[in-house]
Amino acid sequence: MSPVERGPGAREPGPEPVPPRPEVEGLTPYVAGMSAEELTRRTGRPAVKLASNENPLGPSPEAVRAAGQVLAGLHRYPAVLADDLREALARHHGVSPQQVLVTNGSDELLRLLAETYIRAGDRVVVPHPSFSVYSRVARLMGARVQQVPLNAGGAMDLPAMAAAAQGGDGVPPARVIFLCRPNNPTGGVFGAEDFARFVEAVPAGCLVVLDEAYKEFDDTPFNGPDWLDRCPGLVVARTFSKVYGLGGLRLGYGLAAEAVWRPVLAVRDPFSVNAVAQAAGLAALADREHVARSVELAREGRQFLTQLATELGLRAYPSQGNFVLIDVGRDAEAVHRALLEHGVIVRPGTSFGLPTCIRVTCGLPEENRRFAEALRAVLHQGDGA
Q: ∠ CA 163-174-190 to the nearest 5 degrees?
């Protein structure tokens, strides 16, 4: 029968669309911020993007060179476990290669841990406000997410998180705890003594995932990998997207006991880390000079942005990242939109539950000055309205 011959309400033959799992229905797609190129087209002037905590120096020239050298071999599959990079990372952190898992960005690492260890109905403890992927991967697996507010300094409230993980009164202990140090978006950190007490208080059978995406910018002596021997259930997540400037290649890694990775390897896609990323990551890791320049630039930027906030009578959260969270004391979305008109992109804190805050990435000196001029103009215009 042709479509013309079918009666009213008839449908094309074939199976009905399959509905997604209930856990997926509750998720919303990630919405990326505006690119500098897009804003430049809109305003007709070069835009400054200070919204995604990227390295304004870009990647190491050595990483770019190494990436180009492997392009002719792209008809070959990459090394499954990124062996060369894995061994270099093991030497870098003083661990065995079997304790290193290289992934397609740290986002893949977090998702793999959730797929491997979180069961439907499990409790997962996360800090709030913090990186949204922790809650996302937990909810994807049907977990019950418990958010624990940060302390007044914008860092993890470790005693409260440990207490939440304990459960009690019919509430089972947590299966996984996510930590972020320095925390995104506040930049806050916790100390070694607090972490030692936290590790002692975490219930047995609870996986602790410590996200140190911004560790290289941190001036404090705390270092997650140093705790691996003391905490067998600890996973330290790192990324090449920030200080190494390789966000466009999607490269991350985790450090943990070999026993933690054994079941993860059964879940992981075999060729998830491409050959270009592996080569670039290996070269980036070796370019200590580029890392040092990037770290110094971020420190100078933090000082500039913090001083700017003080001059304007605004609160800047103490940060150990390559960004500063500023409470502008008014609708952050409105400030964000007004800054766009000046050709400056920042991250409004609305998605973090911080409706009066903006997160500003430390840029090049001229980019930081451009932001300062734009923010002064926007706040002055708001005061005069």
A: 50
